[in-house]
Amino acid sequence: MPYINTAPSVTEAVAESINYDRKSDGNLYHSDYATDRLTVGQFTAAAGATVEVRAIVQFGKEYPTRNGRPLYGEPKHRVIQFGASATCHGYGCADPTHEVPLTDAVPLDSEKYAEELAEGAEPAVQKAREWAQAHAEKCRAQAYGGR
After folding, report:
1. d(Cα 88, Cα 133) in Å, to the nearest integer?
2. pLDDT (tens digit, 9 = 90+) per residue, 64-82?
3. I want to staple 112 with a disulfide (CB 3.0 to 4.6 A). Which of 77, 101, 116, 137 is the partner?
């Protein structure tokens, strides 16, 4: 694998996922409910373990609301939510995971470009990256060495 000196772009990765979901929406085998976990960063811990950061993109459907109450007679709208996670893949790590909760649902039916929608994932991923970097600096977990 070639060396990449910058972290993958969260906006590009999430926008690609959104575009794929929109393209396959009419497909017979397309599910209205899906979750993508996209690797958007890796850190190496002090003792060699890897800490991986993933953007979580969750697609679904919700009833439209009025005054905070769902309108059950109306058709459901496609929505998208963003979150993030960081996981330490080291042997002996005491605190291996960190989750950033999903955001409020954003309508996916809108005509917004995928890149515009994808910017909503940035804050969650940034929090996960900050945790991952701090964890990598202090974690003494060993990398898995096989047999």
Report:
1. 11
2. 888 878 888 888 888 999 9
3. 116
Q: Tell me the pairing of strands 97-100 and 50-62.
A: unpaired
| CA angle, 112 then 117 then 121, to 5° | 175
Buried (b) or exposed (e) across 37-73, using 16+ Cβ within 10 A? ebebbebebeeebbbbbbbbbbbbeeeeeeeeeeeee
| Contact assessment for residue 40 and residue 13, using Cβ atoms and an 8 Å cutoff | yes
Convert the pLDDT of each residue in 105-117 to its tens digit.
888 876 778 999 9
**Res. 4 pLDDT band, cuts 50 70 90:** low
Please give the DSSP secondary-structure letter assigned to residue 91.
Answer: B
Element (H, E) at 125: helix 122-138
